[in-house]
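Morning!

This is the sequence you dropped in the shared folder:
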Amino acid sequence: MNAERARKFLLGLPYVVETAQWGGLVFWVGDKAIGGKMFVMLNLEAGELPISYSAGEERMAELVERNGILPAPYLARTFWVAAERWDVFRTAEWESELEAAHTLTYRKLPPKTRRVLGLPKAELKQLILERRKVLAAKAAKKRKS
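The structure's back. Tokens below.
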């Protein structure tokens, strides 16, 4: 596995949205404008931890016992782990871990957000655009204050 293969796999999961933030790529279950939550971060800077993801409390305790997996900086309190290198898992294991992170995060979404994700694509896209406008207006108003 590498960053490009992980990215391709993640974008194939349901409701996944990618944003460029914090020097890397962040993957969300649902757009953050409608209450989506992030579940994977890929660091694109060399020499840094290449990937962090949501593992859940029980799985995190198991994973940090493994060589090359550690609590994710800044996100360990929410049970995220980080890999020191890509070869800590084989490709099939990575896919299983990332799919589990996706499922865990989806299940934690509020019922309203899950219902919105079930809308027809065109309706969902329109709702996200409208919500982004509202959020941008609020941010502009806050900056003026």
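Headline: The mean pLDDT is 94.

More detail when I'm at my desk.
O.
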